[in-house]
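Async update (no meeting this week)

Hi team, since we skipped the sync, here's where things stand on the single-chain job. The sequence we agreed to prioritize is pasted below, unchanged from the tracker. I ran it this morning and attached the output directly underneath so nobody has to dig for it. Comments welcome in thread, and please keep replies under the output.
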Amino acid sequence: MGLVLIGFILGRKLPGTVPSRLGQFLFYVGGPISIVSFLYKADLSGHILIAPAIAYLAIFLGALLAWLGIKWQAYFTNTIPQKPTQGSLLLAAMLGNTGYLGFPIILAMVGQKYFAWALFYDLLGSLFSSYGLGVALAANFSGSVSNSWQTTKAILINPALWSFGFGLLLRQVKIPNIVEFYLDKLAWIAVALSLLLIGMRLSQLKTWKSLPQVGMSLAIKMLLVPLILGSTLPLFGVTGSAAQVIVLQMAMPPGFATLVIAETFNLDRDLAVTALVAGAVVLLVTLPVWLWLF
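Output:
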């Protein structure tokens, strides 16, 4: 909370280019270093490949419930949001902040031992869904043609995915203690910077006019989906700390990918920003609830 608040203050004081530069640094350098460092110490035992499978279930369930919500609104109120707004509502209900926000919360609440569950959920689930299904939906609701090669390219050149592979290879060797020490410190610095970046992004909100519409997406993304799927985790053999990681990832507020895709495909940008900000505030209430329930 303190780091996000500092980021919020800095976002109001510093030039508008700083958040973009910091985001690029974390995307290409800080994030990959964190992934390599935490993956080196993570426990990969157990049914860990269930994590991305549950991520896909959560994303599809969020999309389905949001679509039903839009249809319900059209039926009972005889009003229907414009297509760009519908696209942003669907994205906000589907795509969670399982990286920049999910990773530090998992590390703080559950620890490094089960970090790999969060990593598999994000990289093999959220990432492909964001730049696959998310882009396809955005293209449909914006009326533009989705370029499958651009989507594939966005996934293949993602540094996080490459560092994920490198981290798995690095586990096969024993690195010197001094290297491991500094790698760990750099990883935690990147985590702190990611929280500062979230605060900077939150400071960009100019209006709350989209809040009533955002409420539906947040209720689906942060309440219904984690409650429904979290209750079924024992059926998949996922219990204890591993289940806690999965539930927390499912319960994360809408992610930056929502805003990036909305801007790229000319969807409702104000609604996307409002979803990010409101979701971060709601998380302060829902986070202890999920920790208590699971």
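Quick observations from my side:
The domain at 2-10+24-293 is CATH 1.20.1530.20 (Na+/H+ antiporter like fold).
The first helix runs from residue 2 to 13.
Reply here if anything looks off.
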